Amino acid sequence: MGTVSTQPYDRRAASRVLAGLAAPGLFADTEPQAPTRIAVRATPLRPEPGSALTQSQRMYLERFMRPCRPEQVTSATHRLTWTDSAGIPNTGYYHTEGAGPELAVLARETVLTLWRALAGSGVPERSAALSERDRAVLAATTTDHEPPEIFRVGVEAAGRALTQHGLIAGDTPYRDIVEFARGMRDSGIFAAVATRWFWELQASTYRRGMIPVRLVTQPDGSVRYSPDSIALLRAMKDATLADAEAVMHRATTEEGMDVAAAVARYHDDLDLISRQYALLPTGTRPACLAATPQTVDGKAVHVLATVVDHFVTTFAALAPTVRVVEDATVLDPGEGQGDDGVFYVPDMSCQHCVRTITALLTSMDIPVLGIDLAAKRVEARIRSPRNRFRVFEALRDGGYNPVDQAGAQAPGAAVG
Question: Could you give all domains of the chain from N- to C-terminal order, each with its CATH number?
């Protein structure tokens, strides 16, 4: 009887697998979206006295963003809640001197459109035909193992990056959100996020409505990160990588664990940089798998550029069709007072989030019955309104924004 080889962690190989799947085409054509009216609720954030940050933002910064200082962070002024055209509750942030609430809503509609385009592109069929070796590479290296999910998360990450940088749109010369999106693309800001940030820093600061960079306009009208921002991002990445390396070194040398056991034992310690970055060889700097250009059958393939180009093009095409109106009477954010075990976590974006939320509820002795990542839906055996309130508070402490099922309004209505 033959033995099954174990494929090692290999980011370069995983990048090549994804490029091969993307080479024939990542997105199919989609039908134009009908005019849609989406109502949003904007709630002012409450910074601590004498500070521009909320308590949650300050606590996260002090614990996880060293050596970042409070004055290096821009906070949103408002939190948004709304239900998108697919009927899924969402949360987001905006700054009154930034791009405005329309950016987050339109970015979400762009994500939904590209998810449909991805489903019809042939990627699911090509993914199903992957060799066992290629599947093993992804299983050993990526957080989301199924390629369609990896690409879906990538699309959502593009929307997240655009929306988060909208907090500092006032740094730029761009006059509206479409010009802003194009400017971000043409200036290489999406690529900067993929290479200079690390995943959990971008995701966690986004969920908290904060961004630790500034943009500087260049003579040609493009924008770049300020030199201080570049230095800060590097310092935060280096500090986090050093922490992960220290944990893994202690576990594998002093405690004699193998890598798998070390990751399982110290999951919470490694959570902020994720299992994938903890497994990087010492001295290796992490970057998004999609950011590395590949050659497939003699053809240059750049997954990140493909996703970003389609995102911005689709964003611009949807802009005239989506009307955003503020309405303080709709979409209560939810206070954890529902009478069943179903709720939504709108800023849950990948399997890392799923595992984090599952682990949190399990630690509270609350069984998780199911999580639908695409619908942002969680079902758990909560048993009482008091426990539900506790769950919501714990999720908020983790940077998520849970929403009661009862708080969801009807999907965005077509405009007559």
Answer: 11-236+287-322 (no CATH), 342-414 (3.30.70.100)
